[in-house]
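Tokens in:
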């Protein structure tokens, strides 16, 4: 159950039984809510810029570590990273989506589910479902991660698309840029300083976030970029390791 007008996962609930449904209903009865089937899948994004014909000129994809709903509701750690490659299947899906919505000369931020297992009536493990389409850049740190990943400026790139209908402004180097959002309430195995020392070649910044942003993004965000998936995976494993789960 989620609000008709919401931000991130605010006021979003996973309901497992009739008692929870009644409880959530009483908490939200003064709001317009949407009730829908829960899908066990990984969320990923396809974000970019399209020209006046709706043809995509720049495309980026983000994968999540953890999820926004658990981060907001249960104050869990969260993170995400830009992928080093985007499959032809995903490129086709998002291009057809942009043409279907007739988006032109704009940023777009599309989110999709990838099923974690076979679901009767929905499809087999790995099938991709549309989640939402936004006619804007992705939120949070995402535009910054896009810049770090391609060593570019996505807003300058957007201006070039609008003025010239092309996107030549980019670099050949491609990184996987990501961030880890850590909670003050969680005891981690490694301190921020230790992580800075272990990943000093990849580290970009450490940000201490204000309360309004921390609710969804964590109290401390560690931002870094990588040239290999293995090194990136090691970063997330180290940064999220908890003392109570050694």
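Residues out:
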């Amino acid at each position: 159950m989620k609000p008709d007008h919401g931000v991130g996962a605010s006021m979003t609930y996973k309901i497992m039984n009739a008692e929870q449904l009644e409880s959530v209903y009483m908490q939200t009865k003064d709001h317009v809510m949407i009730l829908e089937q829960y899908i066990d899948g990984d969320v990923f994004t396809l974000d970019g810029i399209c020209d006046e014909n709706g043809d995509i000129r720049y495309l980026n994809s983000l994968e999540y570590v953890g999820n926004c709903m658990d981060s907001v509701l249960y104050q869990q750690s969260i993170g995400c990273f830009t992928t080093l490659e985007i499959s032809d299947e995903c490129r086709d899906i998002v291009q057809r989506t942009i043409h279907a919505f007739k988006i032109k000369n704009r940023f777009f931020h599309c989110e999709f589910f990838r099923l974690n297992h076979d679901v009767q009536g929905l499809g087999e493990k790995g099938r991709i479902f549309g989640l939402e389409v936004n006619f804007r850049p992705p939120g949070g740190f995402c535009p910054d991660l896009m810049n770090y990943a391609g060593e570019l400026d996505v807003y300058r790139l957007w201006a070039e698309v609008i003025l010239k209908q092309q996107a030549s402004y980019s670099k050949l180097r491609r990184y996987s840029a990501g961030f880890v959002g850590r909670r003050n309430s969680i005891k981690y195995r490694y301190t921020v300083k230790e992580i800075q020392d272990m990943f000093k070649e990849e580290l970009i910044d450490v940000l201490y976030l204000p309360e309004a942003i921390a609710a969804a993004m964590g109290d401390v965000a560690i931002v870094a970029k990588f040239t290999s998936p293995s090194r990136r995976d090691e970063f997330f494993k180290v940064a999220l390791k908890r003392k109570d789960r050694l």
